[in-house]
């Protein structure tokens, strides 16, 4: 009987040890994750509170009161007229300075064509620029879009022309190299991008 009791106690002890190790293996990660989650939430709230407290401490009370009482409309004082100045000296708010016209407004491409060069890989564009401005224009930038036969877009190329087009005149640029293009390009359309006054 003593042998049976010893073996029965040995079985219970082995079950308890196995059960305890299983519980520890399962509970340890769960407790660790829960603890990290609580710590993250509490430290985030503490950081937010400390930042708001430090901001309110660094701002003087007069500034806080002023920002709370003023609105954006109150921030800009109304214009006052000096009694010594004549009334017409102050420009009305309705009359804003007219924006300066862009050189591109009077500049346009009147005709254009293109062909291939350099074993078929170079795009050579011929176009005529017409300048209707009252001033000469320089540093003209053009952008050319190349399409396939079916009209689908293939590639874009830009080119800066360092030449000058005089006022109220036109100038033709023949076979200007705008870049390398795909062999499938069959159509090209160029447009003006930028220009500057001379």
What is the strand and helix layout of this fold?
Blueprint: H1 2-58, H2 61-69, H3 72-75, E1 107-117, E2 122-131, E3 137-147, E4 153-165, E5 169-180, E6 187-197
Antiparallel strand pairs: 1-2, 2-5, 3-4, 3-6
Summarize this structure briefly:
The protein contains three helices and six strands, in the order αααββββββ. By secondary structure, it is of the alpha+beta class.
Structural summary, described in words:
- With 198 residues, this protein is of the alpha+beta class.
- Helices cover 35% and strands 34% of the residues.
- The protein has helices at 2-58, 61-69, 72-75; strands spanning 107-117, 122-131, 137-147, 153-165, 169-180, 187-197.
- The chain has a three-stranded antiparallel beta sheet with strand order 1-2-5, with no helix packed on it. It has a three-stranded antiparallel beta sheet with strand order 4-3-6, with no helix packed on it.
- It is elongated, with a radius of gyration of 40 Å.
- The protein starts with a helix and ends with a strand.
Cross-sheet strand order for the largest sheet: 1-2-5
Percentage of residues assigned to helices: 25-40%
Oligomeric state: single chain
What is the H/E string? HHHEEEEEE
Distance between the termini: 118 Å
Shape: elongated
Low-pLDDT parts are 61-67
Question: Using only CA atoms, what is the Rg?
Answer: 40 Å
What's the number of helices?
A: 3
Major sheet characteristics = 3 strands, antiparallel
């Amino acid at each position: 009987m003593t042998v049976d009791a010893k073996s029965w106690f040995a079985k219970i002890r082995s079950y308890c040890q196995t059960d305890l190790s299983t519980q520890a293996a399962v509970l340890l990660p769960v407790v660790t994750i829960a603890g990290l989650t609580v710590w993250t939430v509490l430290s985030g709230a503490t950081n937010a509170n400390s930042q708001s407290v430090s901001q309110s401490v660094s701002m003087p009370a007069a500034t806080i009161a002023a920002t709370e009482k003023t609105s954006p409309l109150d921030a800009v004082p109304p214009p006052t007229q000096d009694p010594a100045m004549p009334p017409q000296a102050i420009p009305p708010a309705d009359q804003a300075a007219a924006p300066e016209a862009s050189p591109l407004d009077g500049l346009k491409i009147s005709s254009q064509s293109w062909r291939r060069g350099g074993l078929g890989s170079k795009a050579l564009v011929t176009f005529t620029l017409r300048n209707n401005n009252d001033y000469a224009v320089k540093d003209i930038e053009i952008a050319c879009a190349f399409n396939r036969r079916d009209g689908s877009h293939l590639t874009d190329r830009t080119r800066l022309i360092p030449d000058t087009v005089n006022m109220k005149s036109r100038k033709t640029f023949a076979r200007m190299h705008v870049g390398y293009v795909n062999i499938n390009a069959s159509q090209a359309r160029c447009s003006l991008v930028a220009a500057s006054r001379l």
